[in-house]
User: Which sequence fits this backbone?
């Protein structure tokens, strides 16, 4: 299991999150396969949980008060409203 994620892996991870149906039974397998580099389904699940936690924290505390937050190199593509953001960046 590989716990460190490079910028490139994060980019592939993000693209795969947008590419595959999150409700499909093989969603995590597809994302792990796309990322490659030895990333397992468990790695992908943990990384997604961290991403969602980071995004929720940013939305709760505001980006300026969260300057020490490490978003693991994930970009915030998708526009300014939740309707335009990828599902994993929408607030709960």
Assistant:
């Amino acid at each position: 299991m590989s716990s460190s994620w490079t910028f490139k892996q994060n980019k592939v991870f993000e693209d795969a999150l947008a590419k595959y149906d999150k409700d499909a039974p093989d969603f995590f397998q597809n994302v792990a396969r796309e990322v490659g580099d030895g990333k397992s389904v468990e790695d992908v699940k943990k990384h997604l949980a961290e991403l969602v936690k980071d995004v929720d924290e940013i939305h709760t505390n505001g980006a300026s008060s969260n300057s020490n937050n490490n978003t693991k190199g994930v970009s915030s593509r998708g526009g300014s409203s939740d309707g335009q953001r990828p599902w994993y960046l929408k607030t709960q």
About this structure: The chain is about 45% helix and 0% strand.
